[in-house]
Structure formats: C-alpha cells, structure tokens
Amino acid sequence: MRKSRITYSFDLEDSVVFKKQIQDFYKNEKYFMMLESNHGGTGHDTYDNLIAVGCIDHLSTNYEGAFDQLEKFKNEYKDWTFGYLGYDLKNDLEELESNNPDGVQFPDMYFFIPEVVFEISNNQILIHSYHASEQSALRLLEKILRHQVNLDKTVYEPAHITARDSKESYLYKAQTFLDHIHRGDIYEANFCTEFYATDVALDSIKAFQDLNEISEPPFAVYARMNAYQVMSASPERYLKRTGNQLISQPIKGTAKRSTDLIKDETLKKVLFNDPKERSENVMIVDLVRNDLSKVATRGTVQVQELYGIYSFKQVHQMISTITATVQPDLSFTDIIKATFPMGSMTGAPKISAMHIIEKNESFKRGLYSGAIGYVKPDGDFDFNVVIRTLLYNANNRYASFSVGSAITAAAQPEKEYEECLLKAHAMIQVLAQQGITFD
Questions:
Q1: Alpha-carbon gap, residue 120 to 354, rounded angstroms
Q2: Among 161, 248, 270, 353, whose CB has the most other CB atoms within 10 angstroms?
Q3: For residue 63, is pLDDT > 70?
Q4: What does residue 416 show for φ and ψ, rounded to 5 degrees?
Q5: DSSP three-state, residue 86
C-alpha cells in the first residue's frame, strides 16, 4: 500500500527571498514547477505560491490516447499532480490534425508526481512530503533558507529572434480569417503567430524572474521537466475546481497602459465600451458556457461577471467569469475532455475554428494556448491558459513565444497585428536581456 504524504507547517519570514532561494537551490533538479499568483487579482485565489520539486513518476505522451493514459495515471496516483496539457490534445478529442512545423518539440501532455510540494500563503509554508518526521522536513527548509543565491553575472551568446510570419503574411492570413467569417464558416477565431530563436543557451530561471517582474500576472509559472522549460506570465485562468464548483475566466479584449493616470483611466473606459472587444468577449463567454454545460448540473452555469476590466503592469484586459456546479462523480479527465482547449484560444464554433486555424497558422502550437497547473489529492485543480509565455527546449536549444488576437467581423488586420506586437513586447524585452534580439 502506498504511503500517504504528511503535511508540516512552518513560519516563513520573507517569502520573496525564499522563492529566489528555492529556485537557485534546485537549479539542477530535473523536475521543478513554481506557480506564482503575484497575490492574485482576478478573484477566486487559493495560494500565493505552489512549488513542486522532484519526480516520483511521470506521464509524457503525444496526443494519441493521451486522455486514457491520463485517467490511468490519475487513478494510480491519487496524489498531488503537476503538469501541462498541450493545445494539440484537441486531436485526441475531435477529428483534427496538427501538421505544421514544430520547432520547440514538447510532448503534447506532461504530468509528474512531485517528491515534495511547498505551499506558501501569508508568510507560512506548508511542506507536503513523504519525510518520516517534522525534523527532517525542517532540516530541508533550513538548508534552503541558508542557501546563498548565485549573483554572478552571465555573459550571454548573441542570437536573433525570427518572426515565423512576416507582417505581410500575417495581414494576408488575417484577411483569410475574415473571408471565412463573411462566408459564415465561423464567427470568431484566435489567429496566432510564432517568434523563435535557434541555437540559444537560455537562462530560464533569470528569464522567468525578469518576465514575472515586468508583468506580475496572477497565473505565472516557471516549470522545468527535463529539457522542457516554461516561463509563463499568463493573466488568464482556464479552469479551476473547488469542491463541486467550476470557475473559468476567459480573456478577450486587450488595451495598452499609460504612465499618465488620466490617460490610463481613459484607456480602460475605451476598452470597456469598445463594441468589437465586447463582441469577442461575449462570444467566448457563450462558448465557455456551452462547454461547462456538458459537465455541469442542469441550470447551474452562471456568468458571474461580464466585461470585467483588470489592469496588469503591461496591459488592461477584459475578463469575464463563468461558474458552474459540476455533476457528481466526474473525474478531472472527464471535465478537461469536455472543455479543452480553452474557448478564448480557439473560436466559435469551436471545431470549425480549429480546422481553419490549422490550415492558416504557420506553426504547431504545442504547449502554447494549452494549460499548465496542478491537481490536488482530493480532485480540486487549477490551470492557466498558456499565453504570454516563453518555451525553451534545452536539448535542441530552441526558444519560442507566440502571440495571437481574436478575428471577428469587425477586425482590422493592421490593428490585430499591432495587438500581437503589444503582447510580444515583454517577452522580446526579457530575451534582449540575454542577448537575443528582435529587429
């Protein structure tokens, strides 16, 4: 019979310092994931931070039969589970394909059972582990607290970021999406493009710290699963379960920020009242409501907030919140299969939009626009949407980030391209600090 984890509680004087210490302490650990809330800000927060270290067992697979494998994995380990769902798992759910170039080459699904879970809230730390005693857990904590973070400056090799689509190509493809909308094939689609750099030696810990400092989003993630490294500054929640409640918070609507307070308030009001942004948002809200209705108790799907405007360091976002009461006895896998991929990253109707996306985008999305997060032993879970994210494969030295925008009937391709560059700005800035530049 498998042993149970034991939870130990300790006071923590400075969680900010501790988070830097633990990242450096475990810098050579193959499995490490930090979920950083930056004190939340979109509601329904649970933790300041969750940190998973080490690997008891893992599941790594491409999309074929992936959800059956995940169900077996979760049934074997009713334990803390951390990992990701790549966008191309859509092919295991529907008659869809992924034939575009895949530079980053991540598995479509990756989950692991950590050796130790650190849970940080309000200057208290809980350690969930298989340590035999509180003293052994305390010794581990003290080792981390005594650790001196390496502050030596690194000399970086210069490299260049390449846009997968030229501006002209992006504008042409955006018009193609508009043509589909005008013909009635779809109402909306999320059109994305990739920026990448080859043969680079990326310091992923520094990249995450820089990106998080620039953005301070509520669903930031730093993850390292062998060679697969993730630096995410996501502001968007895909799906959370707490008891019998499901919460989804799709984003549709983006506006830049201003250092001028009056102008910044004006930009928020313009975003809130923009008919195109409202149209995008309500279409995706309807799509999410439909997805949740597949797993919800009848009559419980509710729009808790529509067109909420939330401000982050880089941008203002329009975020809506949809809740539902989940049907009894549905597993994590059941719920994900009914709702994945996230509506905000596909379009409406969902399957038609994904067909058109595959034909017109120039890269395999992979983890981008998928989801990353955790599942607790009691079945509660929380996953973000993988946007505003750097991906790095240390084996082939390939770094990538992707951005997108929603194409509706009111879209103007030039403005959609400008929105993509706005979303790319923070990641370009972070890579530039390591000598990886974009002209």
A1: 38
A2: 248
A3: yes
A4: -65, -40
A5: coil
Six-digit token string for 45: 């927060």
Distance CA 296, CA 347 (A): 21
Other CB atoms within a 10 A radius of the CB of residue 178 amount to 20
pLDDT band at 2 (very low <50, low <70, confident <90, very high): low
Backbone φ/ψ region at 347: left (φ over 0), alpha (ψ -120 to 50), beta: left
Q: What residues does 247 pair with on adjacent strands? A: 240, 323
User: Is residue 403 within 8 Å of 423, Cβ to Cβ?
Assistant: yes
Least confident of 38-52, 101-115, 219-233, 319-333: 38-52
| Encoded tokens for 76 | 């074997």
Per DSSP, the residues of 317-350 read EEEEEEEEEBPTT--HHHHHHHHPSPGGGSEESH
pLDDT tens digits along 147-199? 999 887 777 889 999 999 999 999 999 999 999 999 999 999 999 999 999 99
Which ranges in 227-304 belong to alpha helices (H)? 261-273, 275-293
Integer Cα distance of 379 and 375 in angstroms? 6
- Looking up tokens 């992923």, which residue turns up? 204
- Model confidence pLDDT, tens digit, residues 323-346: 999 999 999 999 999 999 999 999
Q: List, as one string, the DSSP characters of 355-420.
A: HHHHHH-SS--TTTTSEEEEE-TTS-EEEE---SEEEEETTTTEEEEEEEEEE-TT--HHHHHHHH
Closest CA to 224 of 427, 36, 393: 393
What backbone torsions phi and psi does residue 244 show, to the nearest 5 degrees? -100, 10
DSSP state of 76: H
* Terminal CA-CA length for the chain: 58
Residue 114 CA to residue 57 CA, distance in Å, equals 8
Q: Which amino acid is at 308?
A: G
From the centroid of its chain, how far is CA 177?
25
Average of per-residue pLDDT values in the chain: 94
Q: For 311, phi and psi rounded to 5 degrees? A: -110, 130
Q: pTM higher than 0.85, yes or no?
A: yes
